[in-house]
Amino acid sequence: MSMLPRPIALVGLSGTGKSTVAAVLAQRLGWPSFDTDALIVQFSGGPVAGLFATRGEDYFRTLETEMLGAALLCAAFRPAVLATGGGIVLREDNRMLLQQGAFTIWLDAPTDVLLARLLAHTEERPLLKGDNPAARLDTLRQQREPLYRAVADLVIDTAGLAPEAISAMIWGQVMRGA
């Protein structure tokens, strides 16, 4: 009996392209795609920003852990590509799930690139609120970089790359059995 390939999980700060790359990569591989934030929205019936405002970050992080576990459970039976929220690595349980259950890829880009991408979208990002979103992104990077590094099997700088090019890079790694 042959082993199924491991699911692929994408981690990184907001704006690195996790959701977009996950969809492109899943199509390329012929695998389903899960987005933990989208699963939370479906489960809770409201936007992530609303959950932060009404229930708080801790409640959101608990849902995030549950959705990651559910997505990885599904992916154990049929490989999938998972796009995770930027803060998924904050909980040790999530880091363990990622390390044990997926080939995890840290998508990264310089702060100015991330900020430009985020400002191009209308989606509200609760953790970027305030007068200086670039400074907030830098703070998040400093806090989360060691955690992303700890779970990452592969790191890709997405600056200047189209989602299709990033997908091709990942596909090349998967095909080589990385």
Describe the structure.
The chain is an alpha/beta fold and 178 residues long. The protein has one domain: P-loop containing nucleotide triphosphate hydrolases (Rossmann fold, 3-Layer(aba) Sandwich), CATH 3.40.50. The protein has eight helices and five strands; from the N terminus they run E-H-E-H-H-H-E-H-E-H-H-E-H. The chain has helices at residues 18-29, 36-44, 48-55, 57-77, 92-101, 111-119, 133-151, 163-175; strands at 8-11, 33-35, 81-83, 103-108, 154-157. Strands 2-3-1-4-5 form a five-stranded parallel beta sheet, with helices on both faces. Helix 6 crosses helix 7 (133-151). It is globular and about 45 Å long. The two termini are 21 Å apart. The model has no long low-confidence stretch (mean pLDDT 90).
- Total DSSP helices: 8
* Assembly level: single chain
CATH class: Alpha Beta
Beta-strand percentage?
5-15%
Cα end-to-end separation:
21 Å
List keywords for this structure.
five-stranded parallel beta sheet; Rossmann fold; 178 residues; single chain; alpha/beta
Quick structural gist:
The protein is of the alpha/beta class.
Helix/strand layout:
Layout: E1 8-11, H1 18-29, E2 33-35, H2 36-44, H3 48-55, H4 57-77, E3 81-83, H5 92-101, E4 103-108, H6 111-119, H7 133-151, E5 154-157, H8 163-175
Parallel strand pairs: 1-3, 1-4, 2-3, 4-5
Helix pairs in contact: 1-8, 2-4, 3-4, 4-5, 6-7
